[in-house]
Amino acid sequence: MPPKRKQKAKTEKQSEKDKNFLSMKEKVLEIKRNVLKAVELMLEENVSKNWFLENCSKLCKQDYADVIQERSIEHVCGYPLCDNPIVTVSCFYIVCSICLVVT
Ligand SMILES: [Zn+2]
C-alpha cells in the first residue's frame, strides 16, 4: 500500500505543476497577444500621444523595430506619433525628415 500512496502524492504534485505550467503559459500568451495588438495599433494613423506612452512599455526593442519597419513599408514615418509620408526609403532613414534627428 505505501508505494501507491507515494505514487498518488507524486501524481497530485505533478498535476499541480502541470496546472501552474499551463497557467504561466496562458499568461505568456496573453502578454504576447497584448504586444501584438499594440504593434498593430501603432501601424494605424492618428495614434494618440497618451496611448503611445502607455503602450510603449509593452514593446521590446525588436517589437518597436518591427513597427518602424512596417510603417516604412507603407511609406509612412516610422515614428508612430507622426503620419508624415516618407519619400526616400533607405536602410538608415525610415522616419520623415521632421522626425529625423542627427546627433
Ligand atoms: Zn515623422
Automatic annotation (TrEMBL):
Pfam families: RPAP2_Rtr1 (PF04181). InterPro entries: Rtr1/RPAP2, Rtr1/RPAP2_dom, Rtr1/RPAP2_sf. Residues 54-103 form the RTR1-type domain. Its main location: nucleus. Its EC number is 3.1.3.16. Keywords: Hydrolase, Metal-binding, Nucleus, Protein phosphatase, Zinc, Zinc-finger. Gene3D superfamilies: 1.25.40.820. GO terms for molecular function: RNA polymerase core enzyme binding; RNA polymerase II CTD heptapeptide repeat phosphatase activity; zinc ion binding. It is an enzyme of class 3 (hydrolase). It catalyses: O-phospho-L-threonyl-[protein] + H2O = L-threonyl-[protein] + phosphate; O-phospho-L-seryl-[protein] + H2O = L-seryl-[protein] + phosphate. It is found in: Nucleus. GO terms for cellular component: cytoplasm; nucleus. Putative RNA polymerase II subunit B1 C-terminal domain (CTD) phosphatase involved in RNA polymerase II transcription regulation. Belongs to the RPAP2 family. This is RNA polymerase II subunit B1 CTD phosphatase RPAP2 homolog. It comes from Araneus ventricosus (Orbweaver spider).
